Amino acid sequence: RSASNERAGRRSRPAERAGRAPAPRLAAATPPPAFARLGQAAATFSAGAAPTSRATRRSAREDGRRDASTAGSPLTRTVVRVLEVVPTRLRIALAALVGLGLLLGAATVVQTVRRRRLERQRRRLIADVGVLQSALLPEIPEHIGGARVTAAYRPAEGLAAGGDFYDAFELPGGRTAVLVGDISGHGRDVVPLTALARYNLRAYLEAGLTPRATLHVAANVLAPHIGDRQVTIAAAIFDPGMGRLTYACAGHGPPLLLGTDATPVTACSSPPIGAGAPTGRRQTTIALAPGATACFHTDGLDEVPVASGRLGREGVAEELRAVGPEGDSAELLARIVRRSEHQPDDMAACIITALPGGADRWCLRLEELEVDAETLNSGWAERFLLACGVGRPHLGTALLEAREIVARDGTAVIEVRVGEALAEVRVAAPPAVMLPIERRPAGSSAAAEAG
Questions:
Q1: Is the domain of 179 the same as that of 310?
Q2: What are phi and psi of 402, to 5 degrees?
Q3: CA trace torsion 120, 121, 127, 130 (10° rounding)
Q4: Is pLDDT of 57 > 90?
Q5: What angle do CA 175, 201, 282 make, to 5 degrees?
Q6: How far apart are alpha carbons 267 and 273 in whole angstroms?
Q7: Is the dihedral of CA 199, 203, 205, 209 positive or negative?
Q8: Domain that includes residue 307, residue range
């Protein structure tokens, strides 16, 4: 039966195909556009969210490195290949170190630029300070009275004005006055004190006081203004008509001399102004014939450091001899600067040379000392007389006379005249310090008042 049914089915299928048309198929339903876009988004999300294997990610990284290693310059490819073998943590540490190096380099550049700017400002300020200090120092003509005078000043290293000063001017009778001084300390507070000291000293010399009296009066005037500072001064007057140089020092060394065999006595020298002791007690007069030279300078020249220590007074004298009578103070300072290692203190020098035509007949050396009871009791007066070459018989007589005058007047002046013969001693009462006043005729004063 099954076989007959199968045969019957085969016979009927062609007939069906031939007799009727096949049944129409149903068309697929077309979704709306909104649903289509939603489906596409879901498919994209499913594709992106599909997890990738570790091997796939490693392969992608290797492909990226390979592309980077094959692109760019040879240096870039070399760096990339090196970094491929560096662990990630070490790579991060190296990047941090590189960043830190860049920051330090930038900071170094900024500091270098700032340091150079500050150095330029420092140099300008030092130049301004030097100009300010030089403005307080007068311009010295080459010839003053019967002498050739040169003066020079050099500030110390560093940003601070110094207290060194000098002055030279003409006095009546063709005489030449010289001032050299030093106020302790540096800075702007010293500048007005420098001007105060110089103008006061100049006024006293122009008024007719001797160098010793000038220092004595200046000590009383300047002491209330300088506070705890000290002032060293050398005041001198050169008289070409007599061929002699009279000077007094307060805390200052005697002048260096060329062309003369005079040897000043430094025993019982006066202390600086402000040292708490009376000053202006010593005065020396020496011969300064035409062509002879005297150099007054501050301690900044003596104290410059050299290879063997300090230059010292002998070193300055050596440089003065190298400069010679025809040299000037600026050349002397320049030689000392070249010889020294640095200049910790400011320097001032004034050289005076007697011009031809002056007198050369002066052959004495006068040494003066004003003494009081304390000076006599301490033995200072005796040391002074011995240093001047006074013998014992004359020494005792001079001290006895000095004690009598001191008991009566408070102080006495011992004057020793040293010449070719034995030293001669004179003791007298101190002269009254009086500033000369210009006197007018009686009629002129009355007429002035009436007018």
A1: yes
A2: -65, -40
A3: -140
A4: no
A5: 80
A6: 18
A7: negative
A8: 142-363
Tell me whether residue 46 is in a domain. no
Query: What 3 state SS string does 374-387 have?
Result: HHHHHCHHHHHHHH
Q: DSSP character for 347?
A: E
* Weakest mean pLDDT among 22-26, 349-353, 379-383: 22-26
Q: Which of 51-60, 77-86, 416-425 has the highest mean pLDDT?
A: 416-425
- Tell me the residue type at 30: T
Q: What is the mean pLDDT of residues 242-246?
A: 93
Residue 46: pLDDT band with limits 50, 70, 90: very low
Which CATH number goes with the domain that contains 169?
Answer: 3.60.40.10
Residue 423 and residue 282 share a domain: no
Q: Are residues 275 and 371 in the same domain?
A: no
CB of 205 within 8 A of CB of 247? Answer: no
Please say which residue of 363, 389, 413 terminates a domain. Answer: 363
Angle at 20 between CA 15 and CA 26, to 5 degrees: 130
- Whole-number mean pLDDT of the chain? 80
pLDDT score of 440: 43
Count of beta carbons in the 10 Å neighbourhood of residue 386: 14
**pTM of this prediction?**
0.69
Residue 350's DSSP bridge partners are 151, 296
Q: What is the DSSP string of 231-283?
A: EEEEEEEEETTTTEEEEEEES-PPPEEES-------TTPBPPBTSSS----EE
Phi/psi-derived region of residue 32, left when phi > 0, alpha when psi is between -120 and 50, beta in every other case: beta
Do residues 236 and 201 lie in contact, with contact meaning Cβ atoms separated by under 8 Å? no
Q: Examine the domain organization and report whether 313 and 419 are in the same domain.
A: no
**C-alpha span between 410 and 407 (Å, rounded):** 6
Q: Are residues 339 and 390 in the same domain?
A: no
Do residue 169 and residue 260 come from a single domain?
Answer: yes
pLDDT tens for 277-329 read 889 999 999 999 999 999 999 998 998 988 888 999 999 999 999 998 888 99
Contact (Cβ atoms closer than 8 angstroms) between residue 180 and residue 166: yes
